[in-house]
Amino acid sequence: MAPxxxxxxxxxxxxxxxxxxxxxxxxxxxxxxxxxxSGVLLGTMDLSVASAVPVIGTYVLIAASTVLVPVAAYFAMxxxxxxxxAEVRDWLTQNNAVVMAVxxxxxxxxxxxxxxSGFAAL
Length: 122
Known about the structure:
With 122 residues, this protein is an all-alpha fold.
C-alpha cells in the first residue's frame, strides 16, 4: 500500500505535481548532500568558465535524466510505458528504505574517499 502522500500526488495535475516535486527535492537531505558534494568537487577542480559550463551541463543532464527520461517516454508512448511505470512505482514503494540506504552509502563513500585523498595530500 502506497503512503497517503504518494496517493495524493498521483491525483495531482501537472502544475501541482511539479510544485510538489520541487518541494520534495528541496527538503530531501539526499539531494542536499549530493548537491553540496558536487559543488565542493566542482569548486576544487579550478576550471575556467568555458570548461565549467560543459561539466555543469553534463551533471545537470545526468541528474535530471531520472525525471526527464520517464516523462519523455510517457509522452512519446503513453500506453506502452504506463504499466512499466506502475511496476517501477510499486517496486520503489516496497524497497524505498533499501534504495535510500544504498544511495546514502554511495554518497558517504565518495565523500569519505574525497576527504581521505585530501588528507593524504597533506
